[in-house]
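Blinded run. Sample ID left blank on purpose so nobody reads anything into the name before looking at the predicted structure. Input follows.
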Amino acid sequence: MSLMRLLRRSAAMMLLAVAVAPAHAEADAPAYPPRFELSGFGTLGAVTTDNKDVWFMRYGVNYPGKKDPDFSPDSLVGIQGSLRLTPYNDITLQGLVREDGDASQDPQLTLAFFRQTLAPGLSVRVGRVRVPFFMLSDSLYVNYANPWVRPPVEVYGLNPFNDLDGLDFIYNARLGAFDIEVHPYYGGGRIPFPQGRARLKEALGLNLGLSRGDFSLHLGHGEGRFTLERGDTLFLAVSNILQRTGQGEVISDLSGTQGRTSFDSVGVQWDDGSWQLIGEYARRKTNRYAASAHGWYLSLGRRFGPVMPYMVVARQTLDDQFAEATLPPGRLAALWNLFLVSRNNAQRSITLGARWELAAFAAVKAEVTQARPDADSWGSYAPRFDAQTTRIGGRTLNTFSLSVDVSF
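Blinded prediction complete.
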């Protein structure tokens, strides 16, 4: 039986449980006054590079700032409220302020769901939830929960969709000495970016979690449709070139509404209180609009009281470009190559950093990353000035990052 067929069958069984379980739960529920809980989190982060002709780009969707150091990639503030209606259900809302791909700092609603307990260990959430593509998706915004200034871009830049409008089921159980979690989900999402938009549609996936003591394992797979409609100056210039050279059909591979994608991830974590080891692998496959690629990282940290030095080695590799065209040598071919290179984030990096626990709710982190984008890639960088004359691929770029994270 295929994974998608298994997911659909599991979803049908769980939807049946939705129909019958709440009535029993509510009938047995004792009188319970509603209870409201409020929490918050924030990050003040700054990043700079030793090469002043490039900007650092977090996951390829944030809008670079115009000052150095740049506070836009990591800085944010969020607040979350949960209203527990009965012992079996609650409502959660989370608002966030950060700079997004449209260079906007307008508040965003990043969580908005109703949760219902269906049976012991089984619950359903309906509304806006976190799309669980990665092992650390749940703590993506609450950066105090992560050991680094930011999760490694070589992996977490493979899928910039963070929010899922739909529903998911979470089932927790004990299997011998192991705790297991089964997490199917369905829905869609969207992200803004300059002169364009991207949407994820009909995303259907399944995550499995396994933990025992200091060790945890994450496995995930998802499939769906996606839209990537471009309107930037470089895309318009390339589209004009393709039309003039009789290759207008290639444009449908660059921008449109008929994309399909799949995403796989594997993550492991071991933390005994002194040593911390985290590793993750992810792969993105697409049929158009975005390149197929895979990435991995390995992080090792050692605690000395409130301070934990760490090292991270990471790599992203291009598997397949999303379009092919044949253009005569010269300016036209150069523009086409620039378009493909600017959409390729392949690079390798090594990071040395340290985390200092100021208190039970605050941490300071500092790290230095040496990255080398592939020869035909911009990696996690973008030119500050002229994109046609700034060479990024093949260079060694040093980035310094500093952040203060709080959770309250």
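Unblinding after everyone has recorded impressions. The first helix runs from residue 3 to 28.
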